């Protein structure tokens, strides 16, 4: 399995493969997503959406 980086551009969350240099959409159509974190032990992802004022 290739290493990857999860990131947000505020409107979607993406995953980029660091070997192949390609990316995929993980969570589309967000309003203002920031503060992304991934818990690799539980395989869960968390982010804050400033528009909704929530942590997902």
From TrEMBL:
Gene3D superfamilies cross-referenced by the UniProt entry: TolB, C-terminal domain (2.120.10.30)
Protein name as annotated: Uncharacterized protein
Lineage start: Eukaryota, Metazoa, Chordata, Craniata, Vertebrata
């Amino acid at each position: 399995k290739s290493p990857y980086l999860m990131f947000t551009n505020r409107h979607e969350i993406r995953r980029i493969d660091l070997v192949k240099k390609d990316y995929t959409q993980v969570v589309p159509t967000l309003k203002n997503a920031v503060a992304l974190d991934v818990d690799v032990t539980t395989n869960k992802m968390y982010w804050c959406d400033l528009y909704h004022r929530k942590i997902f």
